[in-house]
Amino acid sequence: MSHYCDLAPGHPFHGPYHDTEYGFPVDDDQVLFERLVLEINQAGLSWLTVLKKRDAFRLAFDDFDIDRIAAYGVDERQRLLSDAGIIRNRLKVDAVIHNAGVVQALCRGHGSFKAWLDHHHPLSHADWVKLFRKTFRFTGPEIVGEFLMSTGYLPGAHRADCPVHASILTAGPAWQTA
């Protein structure tokens, strides 16, 4: 079975993501939200498709500004559904806007999205999925698992013999303290 660590090195899109982002702990709520948005949009598609559209997503979703996205109305929703640079799926667009409002509420209750994640850590993958399904829209097992692996809350982003794995361990991912 092929692993991301086999596919990514040297690839123009996968390589930089694999080497500098995937599995590293994330402290910034805007980056956490971006990862959630990208994982939601990956559902049913390849990760390469999402990475190629990442800059268009940043532009379309106001650099993943949570407050701005939570305030989107009918005009912004229609703009997004007409934007050929992103994935124009009504359920995904609606989920992103809804989830921005959810993250706002989590920030009010916990101080930040990261603090909410930290409050619930550690959980098993199955318990994380239950929590995300109760809290967010469009978050099934694969989306939740990849989001949590990509942000350092669950292990498994890299093989133990991958050179990036050592860098992640040095950065202190949450799963390491579970």
TrEMBL record:
Keywords: Metal-binding, Zinc. InterPro entries: Adenine_glyco (IPR005019), DNA-3mA_glycosylase (IPR052891), DNA_glycosylase (IPR011257). One of its GO terms (biological process) is base-excision repair. SUPFAM superfamilies: DNA-glycosylase. Pfam families: Adenine_glyco (PF03352). Zn(2+) binds at residues 5, 18. It comes from the Bacteria. One of its GO terms (molecular function) is DNA-3-methyladenine glycosylase activity. This is DNA-3-methyladenine glycosylase I. It comes from Billgrantia montanilacus.
